[in-house]
Amino acid sequence: MKPTITITTHRSRRSPVGRLMQALTAAATVSAALLLAGCGGGSDAPAAPGPTDAVPASASASSTGLKDYLLQLAGMQVDDKEPVDLTNFAPPTPDDTEPEVGQ
Fold it and tell me: Does a structural domain hold residue 59?
């Protein structure tokens, strides 16, 4: 008698629902890992004050500082602009000129 070789294929015994649950579990695990990896530490550097927080001292010190501040304000989007507190603002006045007379 000759030996007989039988080849059988191994089929998964899981039902389609079981395979779906396994795939969903793997997807949820990967998603959770990605979310946690994205929650890294933040920057320790404090945010620079915005132009609408307060008028900088350089705007009161010289006309160049005032011009730079006004250009910074003009470059902002309309939706980002807030009222500015002017209590500490003293615009620079030149000592060698007289005020112009208005008409």
Answer: yes
The DSSP call for residue 87 is: T
Residue 59: give the domain boundaries. Answer: 50-91
Question: Number of folded domains in the chain?
Answer: 1
Q: Which two tokens stand for residue 88?
A: 């500490």
| 101-to-22, 81, 94, 98 alpha-carbon distances in Å | 83, 32, 16, 9
d(CA 71, CA 92): 16
Kindly state whether residue 71 falls inside one of the protein's structural domains: yes
Tens digit of each residue's pLDDT (9 = 90 or more) over 21-58? 888 899 889 888 877 777 666 666 666 666 667 788 88
**In sequence order, what DSSP letters do the residues of 14-26 get, joined into one string?**
S-HHHHHHHHHHH
Identify the CA nearest to 29 among candidates 41, 21, 39: 21
